[in-house]
Amino acid sequence: MAKCEICGKGAHFGNNVSHSHRRSNHMWKSNIKHVTAKINGANKKIYVCTQCLKSGKVERG
Questions:
Q1: 41 within some domain
Q2: What confidence tens digit (pLDDT) does each residue in 9-45 have?
Q3: 5 domain residue, yes or no
Q4: 7, 9, 24, 46: most buried by Cβ count inside 10 Å?
């Protein structure tokens, strides 16, 4: 599973709990994109979450 290379956000794990309180495994995936970003003046493809893109932590190349 991909992780954001800026903030480290990745998949989260837990349980789905039904009305009768039976538990089953569940995985929440973060909204992560493979984008071309400008790093040290050069363009490089990295995985970035949409929150980092929206906040301006990453400059797209």
A1: yes
A2: 999 999 999 999 999 999 999 999 999 999 999 999 9
A3: no
A4: 9
SS3 sequence of the chain: CCCCCCCCCCCEEEEEECCCCCEEEEEECCCEEEEEEEECCEEEEEEEEHHHHHHCCCCEC
Q: What's the total number of domains in the chain? A: 1
Decide if 3 is inside a domain.
no
Distance CA 18, CA 42 (A): 49
Q: What is the span of the domain harbouring residue 20?
A: 12-55
Tell me the whole-structure pTM to 2 decimals: 0.79
